[in-house]
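Lab channel / #folding
Pinned by the channel admin:
"Please post every new chain as: sequence first, then the C-alpha cells as a reply. Keep commentary short and put observations after the output so the thread stays searchable."

First post following the new format, from NK:
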Amino acid sequence: MIKTVYVICAEKIICDDVSKSITAVDITDGFDAEKYPLLFQRFECLWTMSRSEGDEQRPDAKLKIVLNGKDLHTLKILADFQDKLRARAIVRLRQLVIPEPGILEVKFLLSEEIQASIEIEFRQRPGSLEVKGAEPIP
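Reply from TO:
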C-alpha cells in the first residue's frame, strides 16, 4: 500500500542531487495580502511517498488546488518509484493566481482518493482597503 510520508508547499523546493537532501524556501502556511488577486511567481509542492514490495511503480497521482471550494488546478503527477520503496514528487507551478481571500486546499491524490492535504489561509490584511470619496450603500 502506498502511503504519504510528508507533504510541503513552499515558494521554492530544492533537492540536492548528491546528498538527496531537501530544502524548502518560504514554506507557505498562511498569507496576509493587501489586495487580491494575488500572484505567486512560484508555488512548489513536495510529496514524499513510501510503498510496499509489489505496489505499483508508477501510481496514478494527481495534485488538486481548490480555493473556497472552487477548483483552480488539477495536475497529473509523474510519480515513479524506480524499483525503490520511497519516492519524491515535486510539482512546480509558475504564476499561481489566488483570486480572493479564503482557504486554499492543496490535495494529493492516488487513484482519485485524497492521500494528504494542506490548508493555507489567505487573508485580507486588516485596514488595507481604503476608499476615498465614497459612502457605504445600506
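NK: The chain has a mean pLDDT of 92.
TO: also worth noting, The beta strands are 3-15, 22-27, 30-33, 38-50, 61-67, 70-77, 86-98, 102-110, 113-124.
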